[in-house]
Amino acid sequence: MKHPITSPQGGPVVILTSHNNPIHIDAVLIPGTGGLIGMTFCPGKKCPSASGYHDRDLSVDLRAIRDWGAELLVSLIEEHEYNQVGIADFEVRLPRGMVHLRLPIPDGGIPDEAWERRWRGGEGSLVRSVLARGGKVCLHCMGGLGRTGMVAARLLVEFGLPPDEAIAMVRSARPGTIETRQQEAYVRACASG
């Protein structure tokens, strides 16, 4: 897919592909379980970002996530974002054996009541069960920061860490995560409910 790309300054734009910029997964360890929560940006995305223009290969990125060891891939982007970044065929391209959950959260926001019902209705149990037995779960949103970091910290809280420690662990592993005060407050509220 060809895209007309110009920088605001008129200079060259860096094209970030799955080959010259392999997908990177930062991880936090669930204490006492050996389980790992991976955090990354949206695989296969084709869109501008602060560091250049992403023109990624979805299949290559998904294989890299599988090769990292993810049994479960949790997508936190909204439905319209799949089309917006050219990955409408996301689930068709999933590697064999990888389970995929779509748990959309608005960009910059926090989960709504429908999301919470799904989480309590079984999705959260599935994620926690993989982690509790020492497995790997990979979370992603668009940039791998706000929504991804918030849900990673929530999981740490659900495994017994104090919220501020969970937030610090996630931010240490992936700087810039949990982007808003509302997302921080959400993680703190998870400890009480």
Topology:
Blueprint: E1 15-16, E2 26-29, E3 36-40, E4 46-49, E5 52-55, H1 58-68, E6 70-75, H2 79-84, E7 99-102, H3 113-132, E8 136-140, H4 146-158, H5 163-173, H6 181-190
Parallel strand pairs: 1-5, 3-8, 6-7, 6-8
Antiparallel strand pairs: 2-3, 4-5
Helix pairs in contact: 4-5, 4-6, 5-6
Supply the CATH architecture of the domain at 15-143. Alpha-Beta Complex
| Order of secondary-structure elements | EEEEEHEHEHEHHH
Mind telling me the C-alpha Rg? 16 Å
Share of helical residues: 25-40%
Taken from the alpha-carbon principal axes, the silhouette is globular
Question: How would you sum up this structure in a few lines?
Answer:
With 193 residues, the protein is of the alpha/beta class.
List keywords for this structure.
globular, 3-stranded mixed beta sheet, 6 helices, alpha/beta, Protein-Tyrosine Phosphatase, Chain A, 193 residues
